[in-house]
Amino acid sequence: DDRETYWCTRPCLIVEVLSPATERIDRGEKRLAYQTLDSLREYLLVAQDRPRVEVYPSHVNISFFEGVPRAPGQGAEASHSGNYGELSQHSPGVRGAAAVAKYSRATGIYRRARDWRREIHGEGSVHLDCLDLDLPLAEIYAGVV
Q1: Which residues of 105-117 are buried (b: 16+ CB within 10 A; e: fewer)?
Q2: Per-residue pLDDT tens digits for 73-110
Q3: 3-class secondary structure for 55-102?
Q4: Cα–Cα distance between 93 and 71 in angstroms, integer?
Q5: Measured distance CA(37)–CA(43) in Å, rounded
Q6: Which residues lie closer than 8 Å to 59 by C-beta, 6 or more apart?
Q7: What is the pLDDT of residues 25-48, one digit of tens each?
Q8: Helix (H), strand (E) counts: the chain
Q9: Can you tell me whether residue 14 is helix, strand or coil?
């Protein structure tokens, strides 16, 4: 979707390499600002002095409200809690974030919340959903530490 030459306007992944001078800002102000981007699915903080990657994946939860009317032709259950995949199972024709957003506006029965839970990796690999990639820490730190 991005058509800009020098920057991304809709990133799915942002990676920050931590330094003593920027770590406080990367963990605080930048992280909070980045997490307001609808397109962002993962925010990574990479230590430069040891193998340590912190991943903040975006978990999107959808809540259904009991007793609220559904849109005509939709088969969503009136009471349910889950993520996009579960919504798709119960609502034929509702697939992915864009469809959920459209359906939510039409019916008014969903509440969307994004949950950013930190995962810390010191060995093994990091899975990046938005790239569908398992990235070994050994590759990230090859020739560095």
Answers
A1: eebebbeeeeebe
A2: 444 443 334 444 444 444 444 445 555 555 555 555 44
A3: EEEEEEEEEECCCCCCCCCCCCCCCCEECHHHHHHHCCCCCHHHHHHH
A4: 12
A5: 11
A6: 83, 114, 115, 116, 117
A7: 999 999 999 988 888 899 999 999
A8: 5, 8
A9: strand
Compute how many other C-beta atoms are within 10 angstroms of the C-beta atom of residue 139: 9
Nearest to 54 by CA among 106, 107, 111, 117: 117
- What pTM value is reported for the model? 0.62
Give the residue from 60, 71, 59, 61 showing the smallest Cα distance to 108. 71
CA nearest neighbour of 25 among 138, 5, 17, 143: 17
